[in-house]
Amino acid sequence: MSDDALPEPDKLDGAPHPRESASLFGQSGAEAAVLQAHASGRMHHAWLLTGPRGVGKATLAWRIARYLLATPPDDGPSLLDAPPPARSLDMEADHPINRRLRALSEPGLFLLRRGPTDKGDRLSNDIRVDMVRKLAGFLQLSATEGGQRVVIVDSADELNTQAANALLKMLEEPPARCTFLMISHQPTGLLPTIRSRCRELRLSPLQAEDMARALAQAGVDMPADTAALTELSSGSVGEAIRLISQGGLEIYAELVALFARLPDLDRPRALRLAEAAAARGATDRLGLLMGLTDLMLARLARSGATGRPPSIEAAPGEAALMARLAPGPVRARAWADAAQAISARAVHGRAVNLDPASLVLDTVFRIQKTAGG
Q1: Interval 57-76: pLDDT, tens
Q2: Domain for residue 62, yes or no?
Q3: Is residue 237 part of a domain?
Q4: Are residues 74 and 176 in the same domain?
């Protein structure tokens, strides 16, 4: 299988690739930090873009890359000749740099990401050292041409040990006029020496208004309750798209309705939920259901610990449910313990291929038992 036939490892199903996004929403502070560093002549050679998955880290990396590659290197013009500092990373859609980046044909950019396995029939599980060696070749060849160069690493979390150590050597002795943009969802898992050589730029979860704008740009049909979607996705556009495509809002609403009268339980309703998760081809639905169950239990524990149900409901009736089941810290602790036990049980059950319906019913009965206290 050719490389072109393989999916892009840094593209989310149901959404355009980050390099195709014209705008970035909700991260104006991060953009301003980059612009200020560039305008002051203190542009760090390596930036570590961190934050939850799906909040725009890759989109920001591509926006920075466009800006840097389209901005001529500063060779020291007089203050009278210097252009005013840019206020945005925006660029015209038909700019040559933009067109070349979309086509992955820009000679000044190197994209370091997972590639095919040795057989070429699937993507590798990590970024291997041979890809970093290709980056070394790119830096050596492009150095003779001068100009700005940009390296996007998406994501640094996927570097295996050899690849991480090879990349570290480049960060320790950075080439001239080269900027590394490293994306990380879990920066604590990176080599401390890599983190110490980067300037960290943390992106924040989106609010409902920015979420709506981001989904509209991605061409995703938005649900009526964007606030609930933002709450359930924790402000992550990527997670919001997954929830929309897999019916996550409806599944969460069904969970809240099922548990609305706990410790009394509507057993036929629970059985229907379990059968839907066990249907043929419902692997994604089972994973989403268990993930949303974990989220609901976490929200229950948080509600009891703070003494306040969520101000924004992720489903109708959620606030009343949580106020009743988690009225204070004692019940909050019970729900936190239950969440840990249920999550461990679910991981084990899926690892040993436990019948999905049995796994769902076991989870429901454990929640009922905790509610009975």
Answers
A1: 999 999 999 999 998 665 44
A2: yes
A3: no
A4: yes
Residues 259-293 pLDDT 10s: 999 999 999 999 999 999 888 877 788 899 999 99
| Cα–Cα distance for residue pair 368/373, rounded to 1 Å | 9
CA distances from 370 to 53, 114, 210, 352 (A): 31, 43, 37, 25
Mean pLDDT of 42-55: 94
Structurally, the chain folds into a number of domains equal to 2
Evaluate whether residue 251 is within a structural domain: yes
In Å, how far are 43, 256, 321 from 249, measured between CA atoms?
A: 42, 11, 17
157 and 72 within one domain? yes
Backbone angles phi and psi of 72, in degrees to 5: -60, 145
pLDDT tens readout for residues 166-185: 999 999 998 888 999 999 99
Question: pTM for this structure?
Answer: 0.87
Residue 106: domain span:
3-202
Question: Dihedral (C-alpha) 323, 325, 327, 333: value to the nearest 10 degrees?
Answer: -130
Domain end (from 146, 180, 202): 202
